[in-house]
Design brief:
The protein is built from 17 helices and 26 strands. The chain is an alpha+beta fold. It is globular.
Length: 637
Amino acid sequence: MSLFHLEKFVRILASTTIGALAMAQPSYEGPHPSLEIVEDPMQRRAAYLDRVNEVIEWRAGIVERGDAEKMDMASVSANLLLNQNIEACNARVIELMENPGSGPFWMLPTTCVAFMGRGKLSDEARQAIRRAWKESYQLRGDTENHFAMYYTMLYLMSELYPNEPGTEWYNGKSSEENLEESRDYLIDWMNIATTIGQGEFNPTHYIGEYAIPMIYLQSWAKDPEMRLRGQMFLDFLYAGLAANTLSGVLRGPNARTDDSSVVERWNSLSSFFSWLNFGNCPPTRGFSWGNYYAIVAANYHLPEVIYRIGMDRDQSFTQRDLKRSRHRWRYSDVGKAPIYKTTYMTNDYAVGSYQGGMADPIQSHVWDITWATPDPRGKHPTLFSIHPYSSHKAMQAYFNVRPDTMVKAVAAEGKPSYDVADKLVGCSPYEKVFQHEDTIIALYDIPQGTRFEQVNGFFSKDLEDLEEDESGWIFARGENAYLAYFPMADYRWEAHMAYKRLPSTGNGYQYERVASGSQVLISPGNKNGTIAQAASVSEFADFDAFKSAIKNQSLTFELEPTPQVSLRTFRGARLESRYGSAPQVNGRTIDYSKWKLFEGPYLNAEKGSRILDITHGRLKRTLDFNTVSISDSVLSN
């Protein structure tokens, strides 16, 4: 059977379920998906298209179900795709274009409607879209994801409306000028990501702001090179997602996360993409930003090798990656500082970190231990500590707004914890982290007069057998993982207060604090530190055996004059970590300058190469961004 006829058969097979899906319980409310590997590629593809169609049907019916009074852009796009409610779509588009928005989060939905409406929307509706792109000035934004969305949408719309003068565009540039600028930026961005790493790495939510532009590029770009680049960068993103998830849930450090998903690890858009691509975890409620992805998701085929990385792992492994910080505009000797990311993954738990310091000034998450759960919804399967850093100067390093307004403004923009002492999101220039396999050493040297002089440790409501041992270690169990946490200074316990968003009709977001059931370990003190260790329950005869192994480790530490730790782990490694100095393993100093872009059993790339090798068993896919080519091979035994 040819690939064309195979795909046609799979689409027909998937379409027979659409009517049933519209009435069925949505997957985000259903049972946890099976973690079994789907060996048959046709069956796997059909299941993928079923999930795609579920999202499309769900969004198309938000008004009929009573979930909304009017269609939004995603619902309009879904109805256009399904060739239904066309007159209602026309009326809604005209209404929405009467008050157009500005910026990437308006440009993306409008681009989706413009392309889905070709040959379907009325002349009046299509002209309303075109007029909005002429008269409503579009702001580019100030983040990596903003730029990716902005330039992809401008590129596609410039192709959709070619050969038009600057008088027909909001920025005064012609279609050709917009096309050239957008193309140049997108290629430069891809080159940076594949040479020194992505800035918004391992994002819990912002994966959508990259995946959606790339699948639009793959689906709608006229230039075959740009279509292929879109496909290649999707492979690049999903290979990273596969290698950093356990049972579909994203693990390890994040350039950007939020107050909710930093503790309820599943509750982020990354879980939607795991569900869609791998079918191995529930999607988030309402499918969120993924509604815009689903519109053209049938155009993407997840490579077998990436599917296997996400689903078929039987060995523990370490993955080391090179990333970069958000761009620094001042108070720094470098524009993009290197980020050295480590992930240690087992079937029961994951440990992940980067070396500390500033990655993103507001939403970074530096390290954690997380564990697998039968169903992650509503769970807090994570353990970590942070220095709750807040600084006007830090904001000024990354933003070009007035220093006296930024800290207050950021809370109104949906980051309510930034200037709060008990926060759990953020990074600090005074935190240095070292990870070896499943051991973490986090050291803090906080100058006097810093906004918050303390360390916050998160302890989940879902922990079992929590015990404060007289040795100073705190022990607990998370499902099939044993956990040990050693605070290097005195501490007290406080209730974890989550942020519940309230309805708001004015400018900005509003929240109330509500007890989550979890706890925060508050450790005051400028000189401070945390040691954390994980192990599988199956490695020990019982919990007491694990505790004995931890307490019998050779451990010495000092806080004055500089925090430092010397530890021989129960696994036999001798670790030396001193704040401000390079760490050592068994006497060997870690040389971060030699880190590759990717290094591990599944993902490998040299720094500066623009070439990523993706492997699983004998399967290999190479993404070469120099030649803009994909090559697949089967390795010899």
